[in-house]
Amino acid sequence: MSSPNQPILFISDLHLAFEKPKITQLFVNFLENVAINASAVYILGDLFDVWLGDDDFMPPINKIKAQIKRLTSKGVKVYLQLGNRDFLIGAKFCQQTGIILLDEYTVINLFGVKTLLMHGDLLCTDDLAYQNFRQKSHTQAWQQNVLSKPLILRLMAAKWYRLRSFWHKKNQMLDIMDVNQQTVVNTMQRYEVTRLIHGHTHRPAMHELNLENQTVQRFVLSAWNHNFANILSWYPDGYKIIHFKNNLT
Question: Fewest Cβ atoms nearer than 10 Å: which of 30, 56, 209, 232?
Answer without folding.
Answer: 209
